[in-house]
Design goal:
7 strands; five-stranded mixed β-sheet; two-stranded antiparallel sheet; alpha+beta
């Protein structure tokens, strides 16, 4: 709702038409999901003081159009189909040549049986040699084309993998995005139930993030998000899953990790973030240190992904209400107080 209000506020203040396209642009801007979009908007506003209809259309087509990924997949798919068609045609020609060669061999066998004299035999042999050379050339062409097609299809496969990875990555922080988180958590929960291993979830939020944006601008806010993302990459390794959940909220899934271990990991992340000093790039001004609040939950019998997230979120809000820059889990008294207040 906060992002929605910010988006509508921008539409009103800049006197833009309240259509879905403009709302989506400003909603994404408010979340900070797309750093390139934010940068273009900030630069255009700084230069012109407004965004024209043409500016908005260009921004949407470049950074938000849902057809982009689909178009790229379609183009790669078309190239794969083209490669397959070319190879199938070449294989068809080779099969035809093979059938012709077999027929020539059969005919040559019959003619040799009836041949009289050296001259007739030499003619049959010459015909066989010529046919064999043609068959060899056809086979060589097929081998070369198949080798090229294998390379091309491998490259196209890499392109599809890159597109898939891009669709699951948050462009600002380089972490997994919400779609990646949802898929990964669902898989991790199913695996934990199958194996009987513990699973913990960390949900954390940047403290006073709005004040960074209000005081220093969205570019500095983006820098804060990147700082937290970098801290996560440096701290979380192996099978653990990191993602930007939305806005200034992040998530870490810890397979085969019980609650006590998860608390240690959470506090390690909190300290790693707090240890970094934030500096404004344009002026070199020291802006202080970033802190985070963390909520921790552990998978229980009968849980699903929603209930696991819900408890971690409640722990996160308890951490916020109790002073921020702290870790709270579902066995802490602060969480119990938070749960009672929500029920009330």
């Amino acid at each position: 709702m906060a992002f929605a209000e910010l988006a509508l506020g921008q539409i009103r203040s800049l006197r833009q038409t309240a259509i879905p396209r403009n709302y989506e642009i400003w909603y994404v801007y408010a979340t900070g999901y797309n750093s390139q979009l934010n940068q273009v908007i900030n630069e255009t506003l700084a230069r012109n003081g407004k965004l024209t209809e043409a500016d908005l259309e260009q921004i949407y087509e470049t950074y938000l159009s849902h057809l982009k990924t689909t178009d790229r997949i379609d183009k790669v798919g078309a190239r794969v189909i083209g490669e397959i068609d070319d190879v199938m045609k070449l294989i068809g020609d080779a099969l035809g040549m093979s059938a012709s060669y077999n027929a020539s061999l059969s005919g040559a066998t019959e003619r040799l049986a009836k041949a009289v004299g050296r001259e007739q035999i030499m003619k049959i042999v010459d015909t066989l040699v010529k046919t064999t050379h043609e068959m060899r050339d056809t086979t060589k062409a097929l081998e070369d084309r198949l080798a090229l097609s294998k390379t091309e299809i491998t490259n196209l496969q890499h392109s599809l993998e890159a597109i898939r990875a891009e669709s699951l990555t948050d462009p600002l922080t380089g972490l997994g995005n919400r779609k990646y988180f949802d898929r990964s958590l669902e898989t991790a929960v199913a695996t934990a139930f199958d194996t009987g291993e513990p699973l913990s979830l960390l949900m954390f939020d940047i403290d006073y993030f709005k004040s960074f944006n209000d005081s220093y601008g969205h570019l500095t806010g983006d820098q804060v998000l990147r700082l937290v993302g970098m801290s996560l990459k440096q701290t979380i390794k192996g099978q653990d899953i990191t993602a930007r959940y939305g806005g200034e909220e992040f998530a870490v899934v810890l397979p085969n990790t019980a609650l006590r271990q998860a608390l240690t990991v959470a506090d390690h992340i909190r300290r790693a973030v707090m240890a970094k000093e934030l500096k404004k790039k344009s002026t070199g001004e020291i802006l202080g240190r970033v802190t985070i609040s963390v909520g921790v939950s552990m998978l229980k019998p009968g849980d699903d992904t929603d209930s696991l997230i819900e408890r971690a979120d409640a722990c996160l809000y308890a951490a916020k209400r109790n002073g921020r820059n702290r870790v709270i889990c579902e066995v802490d008294p602060e969480y119990a107080a938070e749960s009672r207040s929500q029920v009330a």
